[in-house]
Design a protein that fits this description.
The complex is a heterodimer.
Chain A: H1 16-38, H2 46-49, E1 51-58, H3 64-73, E2 80-84, E3 93-99, H4 110-121, E4 127-135, H5 137-165, H6 168-191, H7 198-226, H8 229-232, H9 235-267, H10 270-292, H11 294-304
Antiparallel strand pairs in A: 1-3, 1-4, 2-3
Helix pairs in contact in A: 1-6, 5-6, 5-7, 6-7, 6-10, 6-11, 7-9, 7-10, 9-10, 9-11
Chain B: H1 3-30, H2 34-43, H3 45-54, E1 57-58, H4 60-63, E2 65-72, H5 80-98, E3 104-108, E4 112-118, H6 123-131, E5 136-140, H7 144-165, H8 205-213, E6 222-223, E7 227-231, H9 235-243, H10 245-250, E8 255-259, E9 264-266, E10 269-278, E11 283-284, E12 288-295, E13 301-307, H11 309-321, E14 327-331, E15 334-337, E16 348-352, H12 360-372, E17 379-387, H13 389-440, E18 448-449, H14 451-480, H15 485-517, H16 520-551
Parallel strand pairs in B: 1-18
Antiparallel strand pairs in B: 2-4, 2-17, 3-4, 5-11, 5-14, 6-7, 7-10, 8-10, 9-10, 12-13, 13-16, 14-15
Helix pairs in contact in B: 1-3, 1-13, 1-16, 2-3, 5-12, 13-14, 13-16, 14-15, 14-16, 15-16
Classes of the chains: A alpha+beta, B alpha+beta.
Amino acid sequence: MIEIIKNTKIDFIGKRKFSFIFSGILILVGLTAFFLILLGKANLGIDFVGGAMILGNFDEYVSVNDLRSALSAEGFGGADIQSVSGETVPRNSFIIRTKGESDIIGDSLLTDIIASRIKKRFPDNEFHIDSVDDIGGAVGKTLQEQARWAVIFALLGILVYIWIRFDFRFGVAATIATFHDVLAVLGIYFLLHKEISLLLMTALLTLAGYSLTDTVVVYDRIRENLKQFRKRGDFAGTVNASINEVLSRTIITTGTTLLAVLSLLIFGGEVLRDFSLALFFGILVGTYSSVFVASPVIVEWEKRSPRRFK
Amino acid sequence: MRQSQKISLVVVAFLILLSLYGLYPTFVFHSMSYEEKQTLRSENPTRFHSLKNRALRLGLDLKGGMHIVLEVQKPLEGKISDVQDRALEIIRNRVDKIGVAEPLIQKSGTNRIVVDLPGFTDIEQAKKLIGETAQLQFKLLLTPDETQALLAQIDSVLAEQNKKVSPEEPQEGDTTIIEAVEDTSLGSIVDLFESEAPKEESITEEETDFFAEHPFTSLIDETDGVRFYIPKRDFYQAKKYLESSEVQKLIPSDVQIAWATRDSYRGDRAYQSLYFLKKRVELSGEHLIDAQPSFDQFRRPIVRFELDNEGAKRFAALTGANVGKPLAIVLDDRVESAPEIRSRIRKTGQIELGGSGASWDDARLLSVVLKAGALPAKVEIIQNSVIGPSLGQDSINKGKKAVIIGLLAVICFMLFYYRLSGLIADFALLLNFLFIFAFMIVPGINATLTLPGIAGIILTMGISVDSNVLIFERVREELKTGKTIRAAIDAGYSRALLTIIDSHVTTLITALFLFMFGTGPIKGFAVTLSVGVTLSLFTALLITKVIFDMRKKYRTLSI
């Protein structure tokens, strides 16, 4: 039998002051990001605010800087330019993204304009277009709205499930842990100046569901052990013992899921990179919170207003 | 072995075989290169379509294509839903004309239209589909004699051409065998269609000769003298013939051969039909003031229409001179229908819809088409996504790579950490993987695999071993307390069960709402994630349980 974790007796609960401070900071950053998004000041993706994306390739070598200065000269200074490569992607391929431009009308799509300007600037080096994406502001609004409803309903659904499944205190603590995880990843993305896109929202909701898995496993064990509470001794001790008991499971599952997500992050390509990065952070934060947030909150609560356990 | 274990094993074996059988076309089809697919398509279209229809469907983000969202503007008068209907019909007709396979054209909300064109990436042509004003015209048809003569010419030119290509078996015989329905006077009805079973396909030698001699008319299943029905499977062949330069040279400059705007069905057979028109535009749609669906005194659905003064003048002359002849309603060079002119029509008229099967919807549709040329619907492109061939293929390659490496990493880890038990978990994982794909191609479900969908599958692989990890860890704990192997396995499964179900419900809740509110690719993610998680419960609780039950009798447990 190989064991990574052997009969640990780590005092997770005792270290809750540090974890509360750390988590507090995460939540604060996340909330800031959240309100900035609501105010429209965050780095929203083109699927939410409208804009254009072009994937194309030049016949001959062009540096990112050359392309950037050419686009700047044509009035697209804010464009995000990324060099891409892959087995089926031709050499000298770039993804150009620009957002928040006016709506697309009739035959003057934004990507047409950008493509023609590029061709004008590089007359001797042909620019071939592979893929384009033009998203009007109106579509962005619709997608924002759909994302909002998906977030509201999914979170409500999870809350309802928690309330049915757990008693009040466990429910509140699990809710805090879930919001903690989602806000933490949102905050990290905000700090990294990553785009808040539809795919990121999807990743965040997936995390909300997934991070609860760990919490549920820990809670199930705590409840099981609380039935033998008197034998076990104090409440905090029981919680701590429960965390230690399921620790190896927590780490193994986190490990396998991380392996899968890492593979996606490394090999899955450009389109899914930010999505898988969010899942990667989320799984780490989710595991952390099931040990350092969800359970200590219950202990803290119990300490301040003790209940009787049968 | 207990009876229940035997049953479980048989069920599992059956499911595995069924999945492999179901996924065989997917495997064959998706392992072909683009060129191989094109070759098969032209050489053996029946097999191509059969494979394609049974293979796993790929989303636009993987196979490439266009996704366009249009917004219709509120008209000065009238309802916006009318404009939406009209724009939808115009676009549907044009998309059909360029021959995109499996297009998806649907309304979204009250003022939007979503158009998905898989495999189609020509932006310029797509803009024409949408940007140009629709042309609705009324045209007369060739007489049956003229049509017969033209068909005979087409046949002889093509037969000549085919002989050059394959110089065997010279033939004689010269008549075209298209049975004209004698009684066209009944054909005031638009979609007149005698109910007669499609011909059985048994090819005798005599018929082979006929095919060689009449390459074109032999594709025509039947006709009522106005409309020539060609089975959908022969459509591309017929189109190819008609577009060949030899045939194009034959067609007189005042003649137009046009396809119908939509397929017609008889039983489960789809037909496309051909009309032989005179090119001259007798009246154009701008003279049409209004068209409304209605009922006649026998409660049959009809369409009433009204013309402006100029139109009324011309229409009266046209209809007066051509009573008894069919008049084609042509939308963007495709024929909606060709009802017979019953009498002279001036300012207002009505069109009866043929057949007993005509419904209010048919009448509504015809009125929508008639108005297409009258009031140009102002339509704006509000989203235009083109996924080019290299991006789509790149996504497939990278997705495959990520799945395989992720799968291998998880499998190796489980094997290393749990040894024989890990092997069992790996077996369950592979089955889970197989079943996800199999589930997606179940007829009636026909889910679409998207790039985020692939991400969902990868994520599921990580999550799906969780059930087994929970059980294994529990069994280990029970063993440590000194229990026997039998007791430890029983306790492990029963105690972990509730936790396993519990821990996956929240993921399913999220997936449900992502499915409800997500757009195409995101929906794909929700599907694979929820299916994968659900199946992981099944594989952990049923399949590995059976194997573990069998291991109870051993003295040691590799876990």
